[in-house]
Structure formats: structure tokens, C-alpha cells
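During the reporting period, our protein records have gained a C-alpha cell line. A sample record is set out beneath this paragraph:
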Amino acid sequence: MKKNSLDIYWENKLDFKYEEEILRYKMLCNDKISKKLVKKYNINPKYNTFSDWEKYIKEKILRISNEELKEYQKYINLKRINEDSISGTLNNFLIPFLIAVVGQLVVEGIKSYLQIENDNIIADIIYWLVTYFMFAYFVYFMTRNIIKEDREQKRDQLFYNDIYEIVQKEMVKRNN
């Protein structure tokens, strides 16, 4: 997460490190967290259920005034919209772009191969098998990484959406 003044302000104000809390939220949601990240942030779950997590967030926002709560709502709304935008870009641009580029390369490769006459059928079969498996591995690797990134973005978005919902409830409670 790139640090700007709002990120630092709200982390200090609420004593709430977003990168660590997102990891805890992911642990709560049974997402796989790499051992490297757990070790880097020294993450230990602070809650076992969603209601425990919600209480934890409420405790954090109870520290701030009504005016600050309104500002925090705007900040969280900005964060969740940003996460939605990243996920949308991934789905709407990157995946079709990769399909178009890889598809064109395959078509061009087949066309160029058909124009060349080869007498050695065994060499041709080996060439096509190696090419096919390299292509299949490339597609598998790219698809796996895209799906992993999309899942990460969606979980981050859910994290901010849930906080936004908690803030909304608190605002209604304070206004009544």
C-alpha cells in the first residue's frame, strides 16, 4: 500500500495498520497467507469470528468524534472504490489483452509452420509437443496469477466494504 497523508493519518488516529489488518481479515476468511507475509508482519489473529472482528473495528472507530467519523467514512469509501477499480481493470483489460496477443501468436506460428515443408515427421511431432506444452504452461501460469491477483483484490475490496458497513451502522447509531 502506497503511503500518503490520509493513510498515515488514519493509521495513527485509529492505531490500525491496514496491511496487517487485511492479512488478519484474510486469515479470518480462510484465505491462504504465505508464511513469508505472516513472518514479515508477525501476524497473529486477534479474532476468531466475524462478530469478533466487527467488535474490534467498532472499538477502533469509537475513539473518533462524529465529524471524524464522517471523514473516515469518506476515506474508506475512497479505498473501496479504488480496490474495485483495480479489480475491474484486471478483468476488463488485462485478460482480453492476453487472449488477443497469445491467440495471434498461435495463429501466426501455425501459418508459418504450414508454409514450411519438413521431411522428418518425428522431429515435427516433438516440435509440436514441446510447443504445445510450453504454450499450455504459459497459459496455466498466467491464468493462475491473474486469478490469484483478482482474488486478492476482491478480498481487499470486501475488507473495505465491511468496514464501510460498520462505519455506516455507527453513524446511524450516533445520529439517533
About this structure: The helical segments are 5-14, 18-28, 35-41, 50-61, 66-115, 121-175. The CA atoms of residues 124 and 132 lie 12 Å apart. The chain has six helices and no strands.
